Amino acid sequence: MAVLVNFKICDNAKECSGVAVCPTGALSWNEEEETIEIDNDKCISCGLCEKECPIGAFTVVKNEEEYNKIKKEIDEDPRTTKDLFVDRYGAVAISDFFKIKLEEIKEKAKKDCLTLIEIYNPDAAECLLKSIPIKELTYELPKDTLFYKVESSENVDEYKIEELPSLLVFKNGQLLGHIDGYYTVDDKRIVLSKLDDILKNS
Question: What pLDDT band is residue 202 in, cutting at 50, 70 and 90?
């Protein structure tokens, strides 16, 4: 019958996997409005978008009663987009404040404080809700720790990165180590442990 999207937890990204698998074009990306659009006249209730979405933002409803129930749940969801749109590891950069270019890495890394620089591929970026907020990776680090995000569609050989995203850890211009690959919010302890090991061994 229809698809409902909970935009309180959906990052509304052009790269949405739910849109990508829709066989009829019921879900599409509106370039002008920069949002996911739904044309329920085209929806065949196949459920592919619901299965593909890693955070459960899509729901395919079968009748009006179910539609009203899910719509009410979305309306009453206490979460807000403000909670969602914070910079996260492995997701597209939200704040321009953190964005730098590849050629700026060495200059930014020269500071005598701890500097974390994440290199990520925007075409392979993950959903915000699934990704670890940066503040949760840095809250136990020194207060003057700096953080930056760099877009790159390929690994940077200079740093021997095996997989993007990669979190480079610098101090005084020296690369202390890096953490490669994507980690979900459920893997936060793993990333914190790897980060701790890098700092202990430097």
Answer: confident
Amino acid at residue number 27 = L
Which pLDDT does position 154 carry in this prediction?
78
Question: Which pair of tokens denotes residue 10?
Answer: 């959906």
Output b/e per residue, 40-74; b: 16+ Cβ within 10 A: eeebeeeebbbeebebebbbbbeeeeebeebeeeb
Q: What is the pLDDT of residues 50-69, one digit of tens each?
A: 999 988 899 999 899 999 99
Res 119: pLDDT: 96
150, 118 contact by CB (below 8 A): yes
Rounded distance between C-alpha atoms, residue 191 and residue 45, angstroms: 38
Distance CA 97, CA 89 (A): 15
Both tokens of residue 31?
A: 């370039």
Q: Would the pTM of this model clear 0.85, i.e. be above it?
A: no
**Mean pLDDT in residue range 164-181:** 96
Distance CA 8, CA 98 (A): 24
